[in-house]
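Feature request, filed as a ticket because there's no other form

It would be nice if the structure record came with a short human-readable summary line next to the tokens. Right now we just get the raw output. Example of a typical job, pasted below so the devs can see what we mean:
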Amino acid sequence: MNKNSSNIMPLAPNTSNKRETVCIFGTGDFGRALGHKMIQSGYAVVYGSRSTQISNLIPKDAEVLSHAEAAQKAAIIIIAIQRQHYNFLIPLAEVLHGKVLVDISNNLKLNQYPESNAEYLAQLLPGSRVVKAFNTVSAWALQSGTLDASRQVFVCGDDVEAKQMVMNIVRALSLTPLDKGSLLAAQEIENYPLQLFPIWKFPIFLSLGLTAFFFFYCLALDVIYTYIYEKNNFSFFIAITIPNRVCPVMALILLALVYLPGIFAAIIQLYRGTKYRRFPDWLDKWMLCRKQLGLIGLAFASLHVVFTLVTPMRAFVSWRTSKGIISQVLNNRTEPLSHTNAWISDSYLALGILGFFLFVLLGITSLPSVSNNVNWREFRFVQSKLGYLALILCTAHTLVYGGKWFLSPSAYKWYLPNIYMLSLVVPCAVLVVKFVLILPCVDKPLTQIRQGWERNPKHSEQSNYIINKSAV
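Raw output as currently delivered:
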């Protein structure tokens, strides 16, 4: 029985492109959105529902039948219901025997059950072929045409043919399937949507920790020290002045931390004389989050630009400028232009502008939509060569601006160095070691190691022998 409902979306496909029939158990938000998308892609869709009454929410040209009737019309059945309602499928075991069941459910928290929902479904219906898919795609993404959302769909299952059938549907919906292997991977796939920025955790916590440290460091030197020893209340520095000192420091340090793990990796490979041994776990994790560290650094650099642009509008700056003018008038003298200061001012501004431009370029090329359209050599040129150039320019920008305080005793309040001195430690160390690594006497053996040469091949042969023996 055909239940055609009125819908404002013209979803009727061209009959020449008609594909096989797909059954969907469940008429919730995701089930309806998936049905819309499938009909647009040329599939015939039949819904299995407790109620077969006409509803204007059901996609046009879709059938609504009882679960048993709907299951008989399709070889692929998408289970768009929650795990706690799976028991109603048990009486349908005979009808669902040999069918491909696509589990799309998610849980409310990580590792909520001992086994994944897909594995639980396979235990309930051992005669069916269960595949996990579509749980990482939202109803909104399907309705918006996936233009503003992730196109990747994780797929796993024990039956290769069933997986291939599901992946064909994924491709037909203009999505990208990613085969994650057997059904054992289902729990990992179900946990994925519940993780809050898993790759961003370390960069965010590190950035928050460093930001808090530098903020209170500046607060102690610029506000508390001044109030105690000079009797000046500069507490309003908390709003703009201190953030405008913390942001460039954070941007420079995070940019240096993007390239520091590469330095460690090169040193470790030179020490070991081979590239066929794994890096330490901490270094592996660090290298995997370099993109996130760089993007957070770019955010701090952008905030620094904004804070700097609004500086002339501040009342404190206007007061200090007018005070200087009145002082010159009362003393009947004019301060001559210092060409040295003019060169220093223009130089550090020019270096900052160029460094920020390259920083933005690094951020743009790290976006998947851009990086997917360049080859590896182009990507490496931007991220490595131009990246180090950005680090050099930003370090020089800080050196020109804050280098004068290294030899100034007044800069060491409570015998502590100025924040700009601290910000130069990591980037200068990275640049110095990188300079050593590109010397021909060091770069040549490092290049040979990365091309497969080994200083002690016997160690590698023994390792391979042990691995092969354990595999047998």
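Something like this underneath would help us a lot:
The chain has 19 helices and eight strands.
The two ends are 59 Å apart (CA to CA).
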